[in-house]
Amino acid sequence: MLAKRIIPCLDIKDGRTVKGVNFVNLRDAGDPVELGAKYSLAGADELVFLDITATHERRKTLADLARDIARHLNIPFTIGGGIKALEDVHVLLDAGADKVAVNSAAVRRPELIDELAYAFGNQFVVLAVDAKLVDGDWYVHLNGGRIKTEQKLYDWVGEAQERGAGEILFTSMDHDGTKAGFANDALARMSEQLSIPIIASGGAGNKEHFAEVFTKGKADAGLAASIFHFGEVEISDLKDYLAGEGVPVRPISR
Amino acid sequence: MVAVIDYNAGNIRSVLYALERIGVEHELTSDPAKIRAADKVIFPGVGHAASTMKHLNETGLADLIRSLTQPVFGVCVGMQLLCSHSEEGDVECLGIFPERVHQFRPTNGDKVPHMGWNEVKLAPTNDWVSKEVDGDFCYYVHSYYVEPGPDTVATTTYCGREFAAMLRKDNFYAAQFHPEKSAKVGERIIRDFLAV
Q1: Is residue A254 part of a domain?
Q2: A9, A94, A40, A127: which is closest to B139 by C-alpha?
């Protein structure tokens, strides 16, 4: 049976991992490759590296980071942050990235998804979406949640799938940093609407939240940052717990 | 020396890094002489079956691969291309394995592509993969699958059906999942191939 995936997310700034609480206050949590290797050994199924500064100041070092990660880790990883064009992705895939996450640039120019899917295959293209609930509707936000758009969440993820996205990485800005659980209602609705996998992000605070996101939220993968970075939830404990709850997980490699 | 066949496939860098981590001498090459002379050959693949077959036929790599006599390891689309036919672009493949390649049809909540870690079960016919691999999980990314046949040495279940996870016939070996991305168990399988 296909396992539900546990994905630590490493936000990168100036080559170091950071985690923003509601994307504002940043705290340093270490070296990305070292931390990634630690998570890989601990049983993480996949890793996501997001360069959170890239939207503002274009990072050319992202490819070096991708190469460094690919060289040292033997689990799949997604890399994102400021990806605007085909050439950005060429460099990252050549460096060994398994998938790339696109966010703001795809909202501004949706054809980017078609272009990436055509050039590299759907499975390479992860559409990252940050959304907030405004007057009862989920709206897509840009630049790490700073800019609200008129684009509605469910319309946008449906369009992204049509255009060739292979996976959705959904972050609820309302839940992110709260440690009060994932946006399970929105996740379940997207999971029923779409035929591509969904990575849930924003709100993980404890093991129970992961069990809920896989059952109520129907997510294919659960992503979190600070609870893993600061040791509040150990991946091995989390997997034992999920297995006990009947959630299919990959046993930690022998 | 391990030759990794260079034919414009996506993300083959990971295969090279896996060999680098294991510490085995290797080279990414499309040079027929080097490929023929290698002790082992890895035929990786990420891409579209029909367009890739067209490329392999035009460059002569198709005939070269068929004629190889040393151990050859096909990975992911590389495994599918070693089969007889693929539904992806309705194309005749290399025909090493008689097995055929079909498209997954999504069933009750199972999503396509089949993306993530799934359990690998060794078949009684397995004669090259370490026994401890049985029941462990490997990393898959694919929308097409190989129906199990006489050369199937391991299977996995998805979309309500069992498909071929690994194959072996004569000097040809293959895995549908990505051993280079499958943590320790994947490295075990690459070592198993290097030891045949």
Answers
A1: no
A2: A40
Catalytic residue among B88, B93, B99, B180: B180
A208 touches B at CB < 8 Å = no
Task: Tell me the per-residue pLDDT of A10-67, one tens digit each, with 9 for 90 and over.
Answer: 988 877 777 544 334 444 456 788 888 889 999 999 999 988 765 555 556 788 889 9
Handedness of CA A141, A145, A147, A148 (dihedral sign): positive
Q: And the tokens for A245?
A: 């709850």
Q: Tally the domains of chain A.
A: 1
Nearest to B183 among A75, A124, A195 (CB): A75
Class of domain B2-195: alpha beta
Tokens of A10: 């490493």
Residue B142 among the catalytic residues: no
Helix (H/G/I), strand (E/B), else coil: B193:
helix
A11 is catalytic: yes
Tokens of B107: 């069933």
Q: How far apart are CA B145 and CA B143, in angstroms?
A: 7
Packing angle, helices B183-195 and B13-22, rounded to 10: 80
B191: chain A residues, CB-CB within 8 Å? none
What residue numbers bound the domain in which A123 lies?
Answer: 5-244
Three-state DSSP class for residue B8 = coil
> Could you say which of A51, A68, A98, A130 is catalytic?
A130
For chain A, say whether B136 makes contact (Cβ under 8 Å): yes
> Would you say residue A249 lies in a domain?
no
